[in-house]
Amino acid sequence: MLSDAKDIIQQVLSPLSYDVFFDDFVGRRPALVNAPNSHRNVLGGHSVKQQLLKDFDRYAPTLTCHANAPKVPPPKARAVSDADAFYALIKEYFALGYTVRIPDVIALSEPLSLFTRALEKVLQTPVNVVAFWSAPGASAPVHHDEVDVIVIQLEGTKRWFISDTPTTFPNRWKKAGELPPAMPKYKTVDVKPGDFIYLPRGTAHTVESTSESIHLSIGFVPLTTRDVLNAALDHLSDLQLPLRKDFGPRADNLAGTETADSTAEEVCEQLQTLLTACQDKAFIDMALQRRRAKMILDLPKLSVSQPVPVVSLHSKVKHNPMAMSECISTENIVDFTQPGEQILVHLGAKESLDFIRNTRAFCIADVPGAIDNQVRVALVQRLVNSGFLQVE
Question: How many domains does the chain divide into?
Answer without folding.
Answer: 3
